[in-house]
Sequence to fold (313 residues):
Amino acid sequence: MPPERARRHLDDDVAKLSTGEFPNASESVSQSRAVPSLPRLISDQLDLRIHSGKLELPILPEAAALLFSMSRDEDFDPHRLESIVRRDAAMAAHLLRIANSALFAPRIPIVSLRQAISRVGILEIRKIALLFTCETRVFRVRGWETEVRKLFVHSLACGLFGQHIAKLAHMNAEEAFLAGLLHDIGAPVLLQTLVDLQRETRCAAQRAAVKRAVYERHARAGSDLARSWALSSQLVEIIAFHHVPLSGQVSEKSAALVHLADDLARQLFEDQIEQDQPVASEAVLDALGLTPTDMSTLVAKGRDVLVTTRTLA
Fold:
């Protein structure tokens, strides 16, 4: 990303922290004095929990965990899959709703889990299960509903853009979706921790200070959550280093994919994507092996991403 553009994004993020909008970011937050810091007592307790591995992390539900343990190919036992999904009634109902949506365009209404499984397939069911888990178990923080909802929608769009990028860059589309969806998953985890710490310490923190603290620390918390869910080591590393994609600390191609997907999703919701406007730096595009024509293709996918996001979210 060109320095002048990075600086503009950074200034925008500091402004958003001050005015109440939760940033979902591509660059590190500024140490600007305009943004307040957490009270020392809360800050010390938060860092202690992070570095000692004592953050309270959401548990991956049994049904979702079993789905992720199954084979990734299409050779699966539909009866066993149906049995697994039935263990979580809310997830089963959600799967039926998605299977009947315009996304899968069934000719006749799907009324049973077996029909839904046949229509959707194992790979999509795994994605739907993780989406449902994230939305119901992770992206829920009392008092922060609006900010967390926006972050979830952004993360979903990032995952969808990740799939499109992966196809052009000859990468694994499912892994790309997961990386995009989960790259900021540490943010709601830390938000909940800070809500709890304020109650436990009886010490209040300004909302802007809470957002800044979350923004500065969420990559570590997100990688810890991905590890606790037994997700791939590569995914854990991508989440940990997604703000520094070309640092050499993780697969540059995978991290560059998330960085580009994040930028596309951000600009999509800000109505800033234009056909003749560069979205990513040459270094990011080179890491992915993408051409200007590929970028035009990705920009054109914006409408599809919006439609799918509204369906799934």
Observations:
- The chain is about 65% helix and 0% strand.
- Residues 41 and 188 are 21 Å apart (CA to CA).
- Confidence is low (pLDDT under 50) at residues 1-20, 24-32, 272-276.
